């Protein structure tokens, strides 16, 4: 089954025995104070390895084995639970979930009445005992049948009020955890106390809950997921209710009493009637995960009604009427190898962590953000530290904290730069974010070099030395100024002859009709490389439309999430002057062949990719554009004269796309290019050979593809309607594996993905080459 999660292979009995001991030690530390040497993913792989070994060798099972036990059998307690506090069984995908649900319904002999779907909160289970409405005792889960008294934490847990609304005697059950803000506060307190921090919110919560004699107090948060009569045989009206109500109703009651539940959060528990709806909600919760202020590690699906629950019953370790749908880990432990310092386009000097590469949420993480010097100091990071790294969705990976208990003594302090790493000038350290005293000017050479590079404006004859010369002589201060250079100015530069001057001016003239995707890319907006720029250009069609978009509209572009969208918007505001200058210079601001989006935006599906193949034509044929003049019209770009409207393009004429700011735009390159490139007969997007496919390229290309760089391959894939990706996952549709393909090929094979040679691939997309 391809839902199957990764597993640690155990070679023999000795490896098995070691694994059992390692799991026990890790578990004991994990529940004691969160100081396990393993991250959750490593622990889970290990336990799956142990389970698999035991299935193959039932005669060798050790009595200490963690399998089948609550808390892996590593924890004890002396306060008995009235009803066992169990764990949950896991599934790892839609297929396994469907199998589990089918099994449950077979057991019941009927469909489940209703499903409750809620987030799996990533903290520790707790039992909170209220007597006559007053919070009287807190007990951990322990081994499931008895836990540890942690009543000293009463009063520090948000969501567990000291008094309930009614003077009831009842036991609430739920998860104790730290929100992101609480985690930051806790780290600051601990750092002020002993110079260290917590590794992550989960272990900070574990340590805090059990800590008795800390000189500082850290706040925790409770989210309830159950309530029981107390004592269990109680016959009060409430007790009868708690025994008879469906789970969802109990949760409403808890909230009504002042206990915190997930209600009101973006991932609140919902009640649904079919498994399809369950799956939908799972997907919603999964995609909301990165934006939450607290950690979740899955989704819990429960049969809501008491009849269903009673009939399904309990196993020794977990109820049979509930299941945890696990989400991929978003956090791992790895090593901080180095810290690099880079001066950004705006002159900000930012540190970046270089990590021992680690797989996280579908990609390999090698670098992670460290915001600034103050942030490094706050976290007390050292070089060589084991660190927890967090990444989810398209969130930029970040170093969360050092794992202090894994220090070996070989760690060294991180050195801060004394001068700007880019230009060697002084650093302005008066703000938290250090900045080169030269500000934006510091990196002008880099931004201009990038803008004129092959993948962007592709201006030949502009070496960095030449750009530097122009900067030094004050001819330009950014790349838009290039387009205003006069022949005399260029000729006046040292070592600049007539021929090279004319060549440069011609190259600049040609660059003005580059498609929007390249012009946009040239801006160097943070987080938008070449493919992302192509997607943005294809989605909006004009620079004016991109600039008019707010964060929400930008997020409609595939691959841009809630973290990146506002950055793009803010950067565009910063770049306003530069963009205006480009517009004035007559640089093309439209994506060739782009169908005018409807006023509400968000479409462009069908004609988009068709248009992109057009743009390929443009860049391939150099000056082949320049057919129709749409200057200043604000009319459909494709309304240009002389377009013989092949394929998907013809439909796109007509409508104005209202790009107020497009006025002054020179020539529409696209249509000319499109008609020139016969390949575009492919027409609407869905007809493109790679439509809807995610394609990964690995190894060296041969044959017709030999000369193509990786970026050109990616461009080709996107022209043919596909999406180029750099990492292989279950979502990959196709792997193009050239010579010497390594781990990506192996992974694709393991996942049973389609693999083709460069030659096979070339024949498939030959029209787009
Ligand atoms: N890193 C380590 O060394 C280490 C060691 C031991 C365990 N672990 C981690 O802990 C996991 C196993 O631990 P476990 O048995 O405590 O718990 P679990 O994560 O397998 O699931 C059961 C727990 O989920 C919690 N939960 C969260 N939301 C819930 C909801 N809405 N409804 C019901 N319960 C909810 C409850 O506390 C319940 O006890 C492992 O998968 C592993 O990732 C890690
Ligand atoms: Zn500098």
TrEMBL record:
Cofactor(s) listed: Mg(2+); Mn(2+)
Signal peptide positions on this chain: none
Pfam families: BRCT, DNA_ligase_aden, HHH_2, OB_DNA_ligase
Keyword Electron transport: no
Residues involved in NAD(+) binding: 40-44, 87-88, 118, 141, 175, 302, 326
Molecular function via GO: DNA ligase (NAD+) activity
UniProt-annotated catalytic positions: 120 (n6-amp-lysine intermediate)
Enzyme class: ligase
Keywords associated with the record: DNA damage, DNA repair, DNA replication, Ligase, Magnesium, Manganese, Metal-binding, NAD, Zinc
Enzyme Commission number(s) from the entry: 6.5.1.2
Keyword Chloroplast: no
Gly residues: bias regions: 601-669
Reaction(s) this enzyme catalyzes, per UniProt: NAD(+) + (deoxyribonucleotide)n-3'-hydroxyl + 5'-phospho-(deoxyribonucleotide)m = (deoxyribonucleotide)n+m + AMP + beta-nicotinamide D-nucleotide
Spans annotated as Disordered: 589-669
Record: residues binding Zn(2+): 420, 423, 442
InterPro entries in alphabetical order: BRCT_dom (IPR001357), BRCT_dom_sf (IPR036420), DisA/LigA_HHH (IPR041663), DNA_ligase (IPR001679), DNA_ligase_AS (IPR018239), DNAligase_adenylation (IPR013839), DNAligase_N (IPR013840), NA-bd_OB-fold (IPR012340)
BRCT domain mapped to chain residues: 685-759
Annotated HAMAP family: DNA_ligase_A
Family: Belongs to the NAD-dependent DNA ligase family. LigA subfamily.
Function: DNA ligase that catalyzes the formation of phosphodiester linkages between 5'-phosphoryl and 3'-hydroxyl groups in double-stranded DNA using NAD as a coenzyme and as the energy source for the reaction. It is essential for DNA replication and repair of damaged DNA.
Name of this protein: DNA ligase
Natural source organism: Sphaerisporangium corydalis
Lineage: Bacteria, Bacillati, Actinomycetota, Actinomycetes, Streptosporangiales
């Amino acid at each position: 089954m391809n839902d199957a999660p990764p597993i640690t292979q155990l070679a023999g009995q000795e490896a098995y025995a070691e694994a059992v001991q390692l799991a026990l030690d890790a578990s004991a530390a994990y529940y004691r104070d969160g100081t396990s040497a393993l991250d959750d993913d490593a622990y889970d792989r290990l336990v799956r390895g142990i389970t698999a070994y035991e299935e193959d060798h039932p005669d060798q099972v050790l009595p200490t084995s963690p399998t089948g036990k609550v808390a892996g059998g590593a924890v004890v307690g002396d306060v008995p639970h009235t009803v066992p506090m169990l764990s949950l069984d896991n599934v790892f995908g839609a297929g396994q979930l469907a199998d589990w649900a089918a099994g449950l319904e077979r057991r019941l002999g009927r469909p489940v009445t209703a499903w409750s779907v809620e987030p799996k909160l990533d903290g520790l289970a707790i039992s909170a005992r209220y007597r006559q409405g007053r919070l009287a005792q807190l007990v951990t889960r322990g081994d499931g049948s008895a836990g540890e008294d942690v009543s000293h934490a009463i009063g520090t847990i948000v969501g567990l009020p000291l008094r309930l609304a009614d003077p009831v005697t009842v036991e609430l059950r739920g998860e104790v955890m730290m929100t992101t803000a609480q985690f930051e506060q806790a780290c600051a307190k601990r750092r002020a106390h002993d110079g260290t921090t917590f590794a992550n919110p989960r272990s900070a919560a574990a340590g805090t809950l059990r800590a008795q004699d800390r000189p500082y107090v850290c706040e925790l948060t409770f989210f309830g997921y159950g309530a029981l009569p107390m004592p269990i045989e109680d016959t009060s009206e409430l007790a009868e209710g708690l025994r008879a109500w469906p789970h969802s109703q109990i949760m409403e009651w808890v909230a009504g009493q002042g206990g915190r539940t997930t209600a009101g959060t973006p991932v609140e528990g919902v009640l649904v009637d079919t498994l399809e709806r369950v799956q939908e909600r799972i997907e919603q919760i999964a995609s909301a995960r990165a934006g939450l202020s607290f950690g979740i590690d899955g989704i819990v699906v429960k049969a809501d009604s008491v009849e269903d629950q009673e009939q399904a019953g309990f196993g020794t370790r977990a109820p049979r009427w509930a299941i945890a749908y696990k989400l991929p880990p978003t956090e791992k432990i790895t090593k901080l190898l180095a810290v690099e310092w880079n001066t950004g386009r705006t002159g900000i000097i930012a540190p970046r962590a270089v990590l021992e590469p680690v797989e996280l949420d579908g990609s390999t993480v090698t670098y992670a953000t460290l915001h600034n010097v103050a942030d490094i100091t706050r976290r007390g990071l050292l070089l060589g530290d084991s660190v927890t790294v967090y990444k989810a969705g398209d969130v930029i990976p970040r170093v969360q904290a050092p794992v202090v208990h894994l220090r070996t003594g070989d760690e060294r302090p991180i050195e801060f730069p004394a001068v700007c790493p880019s230009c060697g000038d002084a650093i302005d350290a008066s703000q938290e974010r250090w900045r080169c005293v030269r500000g934006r000017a510091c990196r002008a050479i880099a931004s201009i070099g990038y803008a004129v590079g092959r993948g962007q404006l592709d201006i030949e004859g502009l070496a960095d030395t030449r750009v530097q010369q122009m900067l030094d002589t004050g001819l330009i201060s950014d790349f838009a100024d290039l387009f205003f250079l006069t022949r005399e100015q260029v000729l006046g530069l040292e070592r600049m002859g007539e021929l090279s001057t004319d060549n440069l001016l011609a190259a600049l003239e040609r660059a003005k009709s580059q498609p929007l995707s390249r012009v946009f890319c040239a801006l160097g907006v943070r987080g938008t490389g070449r493919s992302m720029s192509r997607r943005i250009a294809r989605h909006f069609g004009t620079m004016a439309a991109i600039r008019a978009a707010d964060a929400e509209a930008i997020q409609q572009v595939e691959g841009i999430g809630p973290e990146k969208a506002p950055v793009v918007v803010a950067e565009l505001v910063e770049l306003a002057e530069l963009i205006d200058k480009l517009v004035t210079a007559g640089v093309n601001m439209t994506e060739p062949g782009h169908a005018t989006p409807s006023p509400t935006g968000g479409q462009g599906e069908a004609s988009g990719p068709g248009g992109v193949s057009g743009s390929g034509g443009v860049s391939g044929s150099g000056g082949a554009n320049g057919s129709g003049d749409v200057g200043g019209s604000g009319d459909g770009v494709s309304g240009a004269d002389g377009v013989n409207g092949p394929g998907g393009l013809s439909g796109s004429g007509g409508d104005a796309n209202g790009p107020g700011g497009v006025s002054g735009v020179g020539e529409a390159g696209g249509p000319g290019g499109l008609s020139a490139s016969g390949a575009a007969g492919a027409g609407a997007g869905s007809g493109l050979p790679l439509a809807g496919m995610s394609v990964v390229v690995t190894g060296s290309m041969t044959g017709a593809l030999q000369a193509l760089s990786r970026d050109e391959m990616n461009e080709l894939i996107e022209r043919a309607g596909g999406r180029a990706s750099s990492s292989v996952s279950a979502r990959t549709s196709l792997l193009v594996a050239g010579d010497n393909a390594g781990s990506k090929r192996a992974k694709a094979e393991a996942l049973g993905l389609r693999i083709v040679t460069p030659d096979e691939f070339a024949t498939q997309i030959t029209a787009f080459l």
